[in-house]
Design a protein that fits this description.
Elements lengths: L2 E5 L2 E3 L5 E8 L8 E6 L5 E7 L6 E3 L7 E6 L4 E6 L8 E9 L2 E5 L3 E5 L2
Parallel strand pairs: 2-11
Antiparallel strand pairs: 1-3, 3-8, 4-5, 4-9, 5-6, 7-8, 9-10, 9-11
Amino acid sequence: QVQLVESGGGLAQPGGSLRLSCVASGFTFSGSEMTWARRRPGKGLEYVSGIYSDGSDTYYGGSVKGRFTISRDNAKNILYLQMNSLRPEDTAVYYCAKGGNYGIDYWGKGTLVTVSS
């Protein structure tokens, strides 16, 4: 069955960096668009970033554009999110998801990112 397992979350200082990973299995990863989303404390789900199946196109939400970079390794079935210049408002549970512009059909369980001094 489809599995998406996120890792790499933790505590970071404002201005710091973290890299999230999502290991995918149970489907043809190289044929799937992938998405990162987040849920900040007390807020709804927010789109963070998306990437086309071959990595040729990437998309970003306005609040992370220029600071976060999405990438993928189709040989290893891993999705990444490099997060730089972190801000306290980036504190959230980050989710990896299978799908993109045409809908999301599977979600990971999430990894918590806390940005605080």
